[in-house]
């Protein structure tokens, strides 16, 4: 079977144009199959997937109920346009709305997370009649035209083909922009900064505040207590729509249906993708508060996508949410995070000076690696590359972003699998200390 791995690499290099990459030097692992937290190549070499494929496969690979749901739907109606009623689509929307707070009943389906954020921004602009969107420098909201401009991480790339985006520094105590030394100080200063930016921009011009509940790709920065409720207060004071981006943090990753369930905050719009069906079929969407949904009762919402509410995506959502519920997967993610992952990572922190900070919740953790604990200088890219190669060589697929290893296995990860991964991290961190 080795020749299939070679054939994959050959064809891939010849014909697939990959995202986020210079194409010339690419050499990607060929993955042929998967089950639960494990994937394998054609020759049978296995890897523990502690990346969840861009923090996506919350339910694990090849969950039988989700595969069966897709199969059954495909046998009956494999596609139908959005301008029709469809029971599977309606049931998917109902399942999602039932997990949202009271006062959220409608779901707009998109093809993924970026267009979910684009459509949420559009709804906020139409609802308020205002233009500007405030988001944070340390964020990732997707890579379509508007979503990438909202994304803070990519401000340095010329991408200004959307209007009215303003950025703030959200809370990040380890590298505070405000010289804060406690979570309380960082929270107070970040809220003060947000309020001042809205005042300076002119509150009557600000349509939305768009935040990842827990910024993910940018570093898994769990907000300090009081931050999100403080943002809610500011949004209310100035009549601004609060959009919480739950694309990465939602549907189990934090041990909650929505990450904001653990905080004292209720948004106006919720964007989702990834964990809603673990990416078995591409889908995303916006959960809309009743108040904003009413804006469009007698006014056309000028947006739509051919595949909005695709029946295969809808079937996978229904099956996935039902399985997460009946198998207690959300509670498992919380428990394994608290009982196994966090203590394991704290033990690594105690042993390895290269770890500057451990932070996270549920199955959503980051190890921030530093060249020097005192100065907090980030570990150089070459060493992060080495960390990645050494982890893969030990049979672990990692998620690495800048100077961080994100520890993000599927929500169904077992204690034994965590133990195996911790051994690999331990060995590799020893090489970096
Ligand atoms: N929002 C967040 C928080 C994300 O993490 C991502 C992707 O990683 C997106 C939006 C974009 O989602 P997609 O890649 O499905 O467009």
Strand segment count: 16
Distance between the termini: 38 Å
Largest sheet: 7 strands, mixed
How much is the radius of gyration in Å? 21 Å
**Small molecules held by this entry:** pyridoxal-5'-phosphate
InterPro entries: Aminotrans_3, Aminotrans_3_PPA_site, PyrdxlP-dep_Trfase, PyrdxlP-dep_Trfase_major, PyrdxlP-dep_Trfase_small
Pfam families: Aminotran_3 (PF00202)
Family: Belongs to the class-III pyridoxal-phosphate-dependent aminotransferase family.
GO molecular function, one term: transaminase activity
Give structural attributes.
433 residues, alpha/beta, seven-stranded mixed β-sheet, five-stranded antiparallel β-sheet, 13 helices, binds pyridoxal-5'-phosphate
Topology, please?
Elements lengths: L1 H14 L17 E3 L2 E3 L5 E4 L2 H4 L8 H13 L10 H13 L4 E7 L2 H16 L3 E5 L8 H6 L14 E4 L14 H19 L4 E7 L14 H12 L2 E5 L23 E4 L11 E6 H6 L15 H16 L2 H23 L3 E7 L2 E9 L4 E2 L2 H13 L2 E2 L1 E3 L2 E4 L7 H18 L1
Bound molecules: pyridoxal-5'-phosphate.
Short description:
With 433 residues, the chain is of the alpha/beta class. Helices cover 40% and strands 17% of the residues.
């Amino acid at each position: 079977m080795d020749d299939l791995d070679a054939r994959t690499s050959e064809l891939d290099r010849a014909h697939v144009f990959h995202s986020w990459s210079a194409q010339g030097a690419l050499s990607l692992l060929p993955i042929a199959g998967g089950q639960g937290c494990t994937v394998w190549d054609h020759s049978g070499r296995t890897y523990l997937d502690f990346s969840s494929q861009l923090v996506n496969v919350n339910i694990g690979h090849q969950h039988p109920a989700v595969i069966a749901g897709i199969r059954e739907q495909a046998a009956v109606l494999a596609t139908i346009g959005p301008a029709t009623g469809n029971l599977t689509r309606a049931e998917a929307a109902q399942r999602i709305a039932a997990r949202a707070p009271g006062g959220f009943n409608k779901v707009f389906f998109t093809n993924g997370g970026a267009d979910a954020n684009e459509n949420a921004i559009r709804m906020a602009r139409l609802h308020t009649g205002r233009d500007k969107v405030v988001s944070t420098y340390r964020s990732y909201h997707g890579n379509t035209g508007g979503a990438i401009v909202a994304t803070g991480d990519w401000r340095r790339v010329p991408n200004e083909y959307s209007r009215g985006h303003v950025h703030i520094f959200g809370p990040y105590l380890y590298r505070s922009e405000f010289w804060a030394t406690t979570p309380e100080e960082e929270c107070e200063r970040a809220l003060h900064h947000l309020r001042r930016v809205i005042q300076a921009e002119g509150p009557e011009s600000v349509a939305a505040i768009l935040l990842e509940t827990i910024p993910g790709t940018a570093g898994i920065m769990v907000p300090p207590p009081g931050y999100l409720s403080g943002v809610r207060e500011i949004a209310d004071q100035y009549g601004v729509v609060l959009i919480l981006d739950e694309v990465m943090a939602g549907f189990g990753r934090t041990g909650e249906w929505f990450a904001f369930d653990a905080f004292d905050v209720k948004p106006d719009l919720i964007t989702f993708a990834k964990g809603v069906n673990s990416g078995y079929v591409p889908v995303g969407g916006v959960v809309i508060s009743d108040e904003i949904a009413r804006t469009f009762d007698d006014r056309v919402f000028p947006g739509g996508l051919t595949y909005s509410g695709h029946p295969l995506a809808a079937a996978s959502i229904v099956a996935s949410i039902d399985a997460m519920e009946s198998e207690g997967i959300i509670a498992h993610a919380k428990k394994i995070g608290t009982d196994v992952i966090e203590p394991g990572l704290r033990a690594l922190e105690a042993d390895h000076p290269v770890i500057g900070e451990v932070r996270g919740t549920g199955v959503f953790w980051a190890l921030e690696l530093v060249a020097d604990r005192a100065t907090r200088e980030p570990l150089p890219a070459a060493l992060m590359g080495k960390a990645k190669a050494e982890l893969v060589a030990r049979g672990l697929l990692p998620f690495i972003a800048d100077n961080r290893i994100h520890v993000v296995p599927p929500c169904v990860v077992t204690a034994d699998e965590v133990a195996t991964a911790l051994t690999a991290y331990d060995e590799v961190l020893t090489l970096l200390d």
